[in-house]
UniProtKB/TrEMBL annotation:
InterPro entries: SSUH2_homolog (IPR052789). PANTHER family: PROTEIN SSUH2 HOMOLOG. Residues 28-44 have a biased composition (Pro residues). This is Ssu-2 homolog, tandem duplicate 2. Residues 1-49 are annotated as: Disordered. It comes from Pygocentrus nattereri.
Amino acid sequence: MDRRHLLSDQDEPTAGPAYHHPAAPTADVPPPPGGYQHPQPPASTPTRHWDIPAISEELAREAFTDYATSSCCYSSKPPKEMVLTDLQALNTYRYRLETFTESRSTEWASEPYNGQLVDGMSGVAPGPWDVAVSVPTLFLDSEMDIRIPHTASIKGCHSCLNLGKSACTRCVASGRIQCEMCGGSGADTSHQRCCSCNGLGRVKCRDCSGVGSNTCATCQGRGQLLCYVKLKIKWTNNIYVQVMDKRSGFPVDLLDSVAGETLLADMNVLVYPVSSFPDEAVNTASRKAVQEHQAQFSTTCRILQQRQTVELIPVTRVHYAWKEKTHIFFVYGIEHKVFTKDYPAKCICCTIS
């Protein structure tokens, strides 16, 4: 007979009307409908233009010198001898939207019953979204598990059928195992009686000390479990980032590692898309991001807070001449990092493929 049928109906856990199915509470619980207010457009502000010039020749030469000295394969001559011919500002904007959400799910949990309070019949279990919790630090991922009140009940342990013990799997409940010294023959290689098993061919099982059973790991020998519904809460910071590519030949993925200057910052429960930024690409990116996040999270999670920023990342394309040839390098970020595809003077060991 199946183990489940050896337990009476009263051994099945119950959790109250909020968790109507006694065998499996709902896994993912969407928030109740409503509760969101449509974001309001901000008051009109005068249009600003951020026209930041290219870096100076002195700073470009200094950044290129630092770049050359960072590698033992690069000669220091180009930064010292180059003639700067043109510096072009290719300042780039980075748009970022963060949506901080809370999601909830429920699952059955159990622990050995040691006389703990059983509150399943002492009140009505609250719904998953009716359990009040303190919101952690905004825009930082975190998790929390909570026992939902009035969902606890006692059931017999399914692993040991309420006995508190389970058969030893090593000796198959016999308490004895084959002797390793003689392989079960009872004699050693000289055909003398095995001193380990005294000629019996079997010895006491080490796992169960010869008893044939072990304390049940599920109920820790109690024979009963306290079952309850566990609420799992997850706070997630969902991030959307878009860098406006100027099609300058500079790999925009390098901008992920540098900082920029914050030009615009907005935070609210629901932010309104940026609409009056001088670069229309930023406005388009903001509309897309806000629409995507609201469509993705408004029905499956609870949006607690949003914030959006627009950063200016300085990028300067530097043209220079060295040994009658022209070359290009880029200085980017407020850290003044350098990128170039063709450093003109490498040592021989670095040019061998």
